[in-house]
Amino acid sequence: MPTITCIEDLRVLAQKRVPRMFYDYADSGSWTEGTYRANASDFQTLKLRQRVAVNMDNRSTATTMVGQPVAMPVAIAPTGLTGMQHADGEILAARAAQKFGIPFTLSTMSICSIEDVAAGTGNHPFWFQLYMMKDRDFMERLMGRAQAAGCTTLVLTLDLQVIGQRHKDLKNGLTAPPKPTLANIINLMTKPRWCLGMAATRRHGFGNLIGHARGVSDMSSLSAWTKEQFDPTLSWADVEWVKQRWGGKLILKGIQDVEDARLAVQSGADALIVSNHGGRQLDGAESSIRALPAIVDAVGNQIEVHMDGGIRSGQDVLKARALGARGTYIGRAFLYGLGAMGEAGVTKALEIIHNELDITMAFTGNTQIDHVTKGILQ
Questions:
Q1: Residue 361 near residue 56 (C-beta atoms within 8 A)
Q2: Average pLDDT, stretch 10-24?
């Protein structure tokens, strides 16, 4: 086993162990992938101020996200097909997050179902992500299932009513389970660890949808249903509809514009996530870290502002916090860990990010994450 020192080490290992179509699904963006790359690279343009002769004892990264105590201002982002990076992936990631003391967010398009994750974590509370779909009855039942499973917070994704084109997914013929093309079969033969894990689990489809959505009994019927269901007519009135029926904490994901941030405040949501869907939707959009400051300046005293996109280190978390993000989300960083080493890999990713966050906070002269301001940046 190679020595793992950073998220990049986990990415390299995941690329070796995860079938190409699922690795590419996680590690790609839309069209030219310009926004996908900028999400990470724009963090590097932010420079930190080193401070010395400051008492660095008794440091703490603990804070809150929408009122929930967290060990660091990081949550696991909702990612589709997580259970195809590693068998039972959502359960394993949720367990790692639970033990670490940060929120886990389950995607609507997960492989393991809401009920699977609840049972697999001893009914420990987690968050649930929802897409706006045309079948409102199904949406109400989905929210009801999340409430019954003890989900405390709903994350409503607003930026996927029309799906961006991701070239790698089209070229790989991405499906779950994989299409038995010659190229895919040859690639699977080089991933014995992954194949053995998948052979040992019954969870291979979209657990939240198959057997629950009307007319969806298997993967073939799911494909047609999904193409019809994402609702392009989504409006702020629909956000209000979700808020009323959910009744609990609501976070709006996919805000990139100050005007939309102001509308998010008016909706009465508890938080918004500055996000461009990991560069997987509007290629050419501004990176999340560049969009963050203007949104914080406009609405940061009226609603809790979070962000995702491009976070690969604890330094990235600290920079986002300095620019006003109360919380951050990791998607690819935990997926690399999951694909590389299962639950232990997710735990390793969290340990790496926490260690980098803690040490860098000290180097900038801070001992409490809640005291960090933009003054740590040059």
A1: no
A2: 97
Q: 355: exposed, middle or buried (C-beta count within 10 Å: 0-12, 13-18, 19+)?
A: middle
Residue 337 CA to residue 12 CA, distance in Å, equals 10
Q: How many CB atoms lie within 10 A of CB 132?
A: 22
Q: Which CATH number fits domain 7-376: 3.40.50.10490, 3.20.20.70, 3.40.50.720, 3.30.450.150?
A: 3.20.20.70
Residues marked active site are found at 277
CA geometry: angle at 254 spanning 352 and 296, to 5°? 75
**Residue burial 52-64, b: 16+ Cβ < 10 Å; e: rest:** eeeeeeebebebe
CB 81 within 8 A of CB 22: yes
- Pseudo-torsion of CA 281, 284, 252, 244, nearest 10°? -60
Structure tokens at 184: 């895919």
Any residues with CB less than 8 A from the CB of 232 and at least 6 apart, and which? 161, 162
Q: Where do the domains of the chain lie? A: 7-376
Whole-structure pTM over 0.85, yes or no? yes
Cα–Cα distance, 306 to 65 (Å, whole number): 9
Q: How far apart, in Å, are the Cα atoms of 89 and each of 20, 86, 98, 191, 203? A: 17, 5, 14, 16, 10
Q: Cβ of 41: how many Cβ atoms within 10 Å?
A: 12
Q: CA–CA distance from 200 to each of 93, 95, 193, 205, 366 (Å)?
A: 18, 19, 11, 14, 47
Distance in angstroms (rounded) separating the CA atoms of residues 55 and 73: 22
Write the pLDDT tens digit of every residue in 33-43: 999 999 999 99
Mean pLDDT, the chain, integer: 96
Q: Are strands 63-65 and 68-70 parallel, antiparallel or unpaired?
A: antiparallel
